[in-house]
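Re-run requested by the PI after the first attempt was lost when the workstation crashed. Everything re-entered from the original request form. Ligand of interest: S-adenosylmethionine.
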Amino acid sequence: MSDTGRRRGPGKGGPAKGTGAGRTLKARVKTAKKRTDSSTRWLQRQLNDPFVAEAKRAGYRSRAAFKLAQLDDKARFLKRGGRIVDLGAAPGGWTQVAVERAGSKGCVVAMDINEMEPVPGAVTLLGDARTDEARARVREALDGAADVVLSDMAAPATGHAQTDHLRVMGLVEVALDFAESVLAPGGAFVAKVLQGGTEPELLARLKKAFAKVRHVKPPASRAESAELYLVATGFRPPDSGG
Ligand SMILES: C[S@@+](CC[C@H](N)C(=O)[O-])C[C@H]1O[C@@H](n2cnc3c(N)ncnc32)[C@H](O)[C@@H]1O
């Protein structure tokens, strides 16, 4: 397979050496009266984050684009001509990477519960992935089986670790139910989970349905963040004897 076009944008999934990404000169943020400590810290981190700078340079809508590029560099699930569903897609960084890697013969259907600017080359839908109605619209736009179901869905953090964990796991289950109903044999499922891992029951279900299941922390995922990604490949539909 030719890599032409596939590696546009983030290249190997992140800022290259010599791009200034590793500079030690740190931007400092003056504390404004109305800015809280946490938003000052957020702003300072954004200004000093090499992936934020590189995303801007490469035209990506979010630094999250690099997470998907790095996950795919490792596990190679985004194939040219692939049919990809992206749940929790706004503002669209993952969708941009999916469109690039699937190429012009691919099909990318992106959905978010919040409005997002359309991504050229993808079908973008507004909807709550937890509802049958929204998932039916994804299915209709896809018009056939999917090769990959991605979920970067995340509910706003409450700061209460157990509540946040339960919410994320609820969204992962929604995405997995959908994936199992729409994936073609051999397909892949990639979803954001939180450290502490995937619950044993869910993991057992994944291991039954997929040939290979792993947890990956891509370099673009901040070390202090509890997120990591579940990458399951080689889907075995229930009636395939797998
Ligand atoms: C971390 S952001 C996704 C970032 C995106 N992958 C990117 O690269 O730009 C998580 C997204 O999940 C969406 N989300 C949360 N719950 C959802 C739901 N039930 N249905 C659809 N989208 C949802 C949020 O609105 C938010 O835009």
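Saved to the shared folder this time. The chain has one domain: 64-240.
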